[in-house]
Amino acid sequence: MTISPENSGGKQVGRFRSGQSGNPAGKPKGTRHRLTVLAETLMEDEAGEVARAVIAAAKGGDMTAARLVLERIAPPRKGRPVAFDLPPVDKAEDVLSALGAILMAVSAGEITPDEAGSVAALLELKRKAIETIEIERRIAALEGKTS
């Protein structure tokens, strides 16, 4: 059906109906842009030469080049292991005392507030898992009584 100004309802007249894509499924998942693929191919071809040039510049005293080399050899860590006393968490109620221990570790300077947040998030996951298991046990007990 051809859309003309008369039957378009005042909407833009073009190749496709308004609101309808020429490719409803879109690009397949994982499809990469042609320029990205081309750039990666070019970089692969020259990677060794570029790396040697950066290393030579770093050896010559170029601190920016030295920083680039070091960042690739030993990249900064995203996190670090933290060690502090944490009580066992076997029941949902135990999470409260564990959170108290985390707060004490932050106030003592043993861990940072960001690290405390990460540990608290892990505790929350454990609390949810414990509560899920408890709910499953209760449901199983109720189903056993009604059978």
Q: What helical percentage do the residues reach?
A: 55-70%
Radius of gyration: 30 Å
Number of strands: 0
What can be said about the biggest beta sheet? none
The share of residues in extended strands comes to under 5%
Tally of alpha and pi helices: 4
The string of secondary-structure elements, in order, is: HHHH
Overall residue-averaged pLDDT value? 83
Structural class: mainly alpha
Could you list the spans in which at least 5 consecutive residues all have pLDDT below 50?
Answer: none
Taking the alpha carbons of the first and last residues, their distance comes to: 63 Å
| Bulk shape | flat
Description:
With 147 residues, this protein is an all-alpha fold. Among the domains are: 34-73, no CATH class; 94-146. It contains 4 helices and no strands.
Give a topology summary.
Layout: H1 34-59, H2 63-73, H3 94-107, H4 113-146
Helix pairs in contact: 1-2, 3-4
Task: Provide keyphrases for this structure.
single chain, 147 residues, mainly alpha, 4 helices, 58% helix
